[in-house]
Amino acid sequence: MKKKYLYIMFVVLVIISIAISLGVGTKFYNPLEIFEALTTTEPRGVYNLVTKIRIPRVLLAAFIGAGLAVSGALFQCALKNPLVSPDVIGVNHGAVLGASLLIVFFPKAPSYITFITTFIFGMLTFFIVYLINKKRGFNPIWIALSGMAIGYLIDAFNQVLLVNASRQAINLNVALAWIKGSLYGKSYTDLLIAAIVITALIVISIILAKKMDILYLGDEQSIALGEDPVKFRKTLIFIGVLINSVAVAIAGSIGFIGVIAPQIAKRLFGGKHINIVSGSALIGAILIVVADALARGVKPPIELPISVFTAIIGAPYFFYLIKKEMS
Amino acid sequence: MKQNSFRNKKLIVGALILLSILIIYGNISLGNNNYSFDQIISAIASNDNTNESLIINQIRIPRAIVGFFVGSSLALAGLVIQSITQNRLTSSQILGVNSGVTFVSVLALIYLPFVGYMGRVGFGIVAALVVVLTVLKLSKNSSKISVANLPLSGLVIGVFLTSLTQSILLLNEEAAETMMFYMIGSFVRANWESVIVLVPVSIVCIIMLLILSRNLKVIELGNDMALSLGVNMSKYVFIFVVIVSLLAGTSVSIAGPVGFIGIIVPNLVRKIVSSDYKFLIVMTSLVGGILASLSDLISKFISYPYETPVGLVISFIGVPMFLYVAMSERSKR
Q1: Distance CA A76, CA A71 (A)
Q2: Residue-wise burial string across B100-137, b where 16 or more C-beta atoms lie within 10 A, e elsewhere
Q3: Mutation site for B-interface testing, chosen from A85, A163, A256, A320 by largest number of B Cβ within 10 Å
Q4: What is the pTM assigned to this prediction?
Q5: How confident is the model over B108-165, as pLDDT tens digits?
Q6: Is A299–B302 a contact, with Cβ atoms under 8 angstroms apart?
Q7: Which residues have CB under 8 Å from B249's CB, separation 6+?
Q8: Is B46 on the interface with A (CB under 8 A)?
Q9: Which of A174, A227, B165, B193 could pair with A222 as two cysteines, CB 3.0-4.6 Å apart?
Q10: Element (H, E) at A171
Q11: Which residues of B fall within a CB distance of 8 Å from A176?
């Protein structure tokens, strides 16, 4: 009963944050003005601005945030590690490298190729981190540390690529937006793709939540209950990387949401995976909508990368998680 | 036998000094334009206003010197930090000191422009001191649990500070070149002013470390050892913290957050040198200088005639080595 209210409260919070975020930008409108503009019959300036630019962007932010958070929750369950997420262990960075390579060498590639490339590069990065840690067991802190190091290396590659590419007439801004994450100039097509794919994958994750609870009990219990833990882990990682690559292909690399949202959800909604998954989707959505609003609203018309704000919010919490993991 | 090993050490140090001079010469002579030995000598001798002599005297020579000493200082800072935290996986970069210095330099650059170059270096040193002391406090109870805790916490602090730096730069619409400098680090901005600050600081620090080398060793071996020798180490720990802050604060203020030298060089040198700390200190400073200079030289030719930021070149060598060191540290425990 109590949990129901908590969910309602968070859904309301998502709506409030979206409503406020719609008003943020070069000119601030309060939610009432926006509502008024949307309900008038004759399209005016505010109406156009809100419907053409801000609505797709803010809704996209919510879906991307939900996706990144759920993808982190799947990783944390599969690796039984509260300190991992696609961005911490370098999968995001790998996906972005794939996207940058595509921009530099095949600038005319259609967008579905971008999805495939980010997915392949994300998977490859995961395997590298996996292989590094395989021989010595999967200690949470070591996985996070080696993943972050791999992320640094991939970023260095990426920057060299971009520094060189910027001298040819290649759209450097697009590539840079990927590295730091941006929701600038997103269309309804992007929104539609993200909404369908991410919602579908979140639903699948919620369906798998019971099995995730069993997996979390330990391998022996899983086997006793007739599950194949190794295979299921692979499934979770596969879905996690898939959600992540859709998010990266559309909005670039956005850090820390994937790692902190599931932990906040676990704390607020309890340890069952159905709650972790759905709770982190809500929390991830709120966090990114807020971060995006800050990125646009701090000093308009300058727009900051979202990652700057997710790091300013997320890094201290992640730091706290590390301290907790240690004791 | 002892005599013999002493001579070997002298030989190695001599060879490395020779190599350093060669690479520094290479950095002065090679680049967008190449200059012969005679051209360099006559440019130094005449010091006139011709293009060639201006490039050699005002750009190439200070840059080559700064590159070497930044590498040397960061490597030494790494060595000292590794000793006082008793953790081979740390360095000024890994613990977030470099990001802290960069953050404060940027703050000073934008909000306190009147403090000037020297003022920014001063702020950088103070920032380094604050971060090192904070991190040491954090590490006090964590180092016994896992060697990976401290570096992981440090990296996260680093990401946080870097994000703040980046947002300040972006909000003030700094040029892409300034962004690149404060994000990756490079020796391109070196001038004689930086040489005048950096070289004395790093030489004084090396001498101090050589004088205090025995204490450094005792600290690294641990508290029990220090107690049994009856030495109060906390006073010396503070001196070493100041030395680290001077080294890291100055070099990061001058060259930006150049990474990975501080962690890999001491680990490399320790593969050859074990217990002689004086030799360890000299070797670390030479190898650090050589690595940075060499990377600078390489950075000029990766996509000739354009330059690649030197921090990236060092990352390519540095990250795989960091992972190697991390994994071998892990197997040890």
Answers
A1: 9
A2: bbbbbbbbbbeeeeeeeeebbbbbbbebbbebbeebbe
A3: A163
A4: 0.86
A5: 988 888 888 889 999 999 999 999 998 888 766 655 556 777 888 888 888 899 888 8
A6: no
A7: B101, B121, B124, B125, B126, B127, B128, B129
A8: no
A9: A227
A10: none
A11: none
